[in-house]
Design a protein that fits this description.
single chain; mainly alpha; Rossmann fold; Tyrosyl-Transfer RNA Synthetase; 3 domains; 3-stranded parallel β-sheet; two-stranded parallel sheet; 60% helix; binds tryptophan; binds iron/sulfur cluster
């Protein structure tokens, strides 16, 4: 069985080449090896864009079309919208009860973003809580892995702490002890007594020998007692270790190799800098934008020699050009053998080549939006099955079933 990967993206505008190379390309690859859940994080977008709901509204399905254009295959991954699953909000609320305020205040992105996004008022309850909402997104699907960039690694770390704390607080519910006791009752008196002794010994000394002895008893019971279930084995294994039941699974951050494509001006590609090329940008516009890209500022005239290290176009060559083309550009630049427009042409061609299948894959969804609505509909319902099951366990563990 494949392990589950979960990731989300905020719907705050058309996706651009930076999103593709920095994240989406990796999402596409992960489909081969994992059971992938990808969702539109519209509530997350509201934590910063609560005054601009129209952007979000417009971007939701456009973003899903960009995903499919890039190669996400709705038959192989589950695509859904966060706000269609109120279970995320329920888990967020329940986790909030026991999460220390300091854990959220200490998330590095919190103070950074408040400083950096000066044009927004982020002194809100929602913005402080957003990493916890992210924890709920991840934990509700018991995801094993979360592909995230450097900036989000601390959120996965927080998620792990939250899961650990939850299991510690609620994994040993009275209900759990009652079920464990009933499993214990199926053992012979001797075995039950020995298992209890090993449990105590392990709790007091952490001795591996006690675990081994206890496990042996459980294995014997599984083989010898008719009607014994694997669930009962798991239960007693947890009981023996004193760890209780693992209700929420700690995820791991999946750091895969990603490519950093800068924006047209060499800074990070970002809509707020106006230096992007959209994934489905018109070809003529792609050409115009690249032709107008700044180059080595010290190469003023055609006859001046340049240095690719000072030129944002070179960063594009590093991603888009093969070795011979790169060698040609470098040699031509440093000897003033080629002009900058000449140097840019292979980059223009390569970007257009990359975008062509995206435009083709997007077309049927653009001309018939119902198709993309349906994909999201199906994805949302299969995500709901998993989310509901987790919430049943969580409510049970917290004593919320009356
Ligand atoms: N916080 C992420 C971002 O801003 C998006 C996100 C929300 C996410 N929930 C998630 C990513 C869960 C991974 C897993 O980009
Ligand atoms: Fe940049 Fe190419 Fe011009 Fe050199 S020749 S400055 S690498 S665009």
């Amino acid at each position: 069985m494949k392990q589950r990967v979960l990731s989300g993206m905020r719907p705050t505008g058309a996706l651009h080449l930076g999103h593709y190379h920095g994240a989406l390309k990796n999402w596409v690859r992960l489909q081969d090896d994992y059971e992938c859940f990808y969702f539109v994080a519209d509530w997350h977008a509201l934590t910063t864009h609560y005054e601009e709901r129209s952007v979000i509204e417009k971007s939701v399905y456009d973003m899903v079309i960009d995903w499919i254009a890039a190669g996400l295959d709705p038959d192989r991954c589950t695509i859904f919208i966060q706000s269609r699953l109120p279970e995320h909000a329920e888990l967020f609320t329940l986790l909030a009860m026991g999460t220390p305020l300091g854990w959220l205040e200490r998330v590095p992105s919190y103070k950074d973003q408040i400083e950096n996004l000066k044009d927004r008022d982020l002194a809100t309850y929602g913005f402080l809580g957003y990493p916890l909402l992210q924890a709920a997104d991840i934990l509700i699907y018991k995801a094993a892995f979360v592909p995230v960039g450097e900036d989000q690694a601390s959120h996965v770390e927080l998620t792990r702490e939250v899961a650990r704390r939850f299991n510690h607080l609620y994994g040993r519910s009275p209900e759990f002890d009652a079920i464990a006791t009933s499993a214990l009752a199926k053992l012979s008196k001797d075995d039950a007594r020995t298992l209890e002794k090993q449990r105590k010994a392990f709790g007091e000394t952490g001795a591996a020998q006690a675990l081994a002895r206890g496990d042996a008893i459980i294995r014997q019971a599984a083989a010898a007692i008719t009607g014994w279930t694997s669930g009962e084995s798991e239960l007693l294994t947890g009981y023996l270790r004193g760890s209780g039941k693992t209700i929420l699974t700690e995820p791991e951050a999946l750091h895969t190799e990603v490519t950093k494509l800068p924006g047209l001006d060499g800074r990070k590609m970002s809509k707020s800098y106006g230096n992007t090329i959209a994934m489905r940008e018109e070809p003529a516009e792609v050409e115009r934008k690249i032709r107008r890209m700044p180059t080595d500022p010290q190469r003023v005239r055609r006859t001046d020699k340049g240095d690719p290290e000072r030129c944002p176009v070179w960063q594009f060559h590093l991603i888009y050009s093969d070795a011979p083309t790169q060698a040609w550009a470098r040699a031509g630049c440093t000897s003033a053998g080629i002009g900058c427009l000449e140097c840019k042409q292979p980059v223009i061609d390569a970007v257009l080549r990359e975008q062509k299948p995206w435009r083709e894959r997007a077309e049927p969804y653009l001309s018939n939006p119902k198709k993309v609505h349906w994909i999201v509909e199906v994805g949302t319902e299969s995500a709901r099955v998993v989310a509901r099951e987790t919430m049943r366990d969580v409510r049970g563990a917290m004593g919320l079933i009356y």
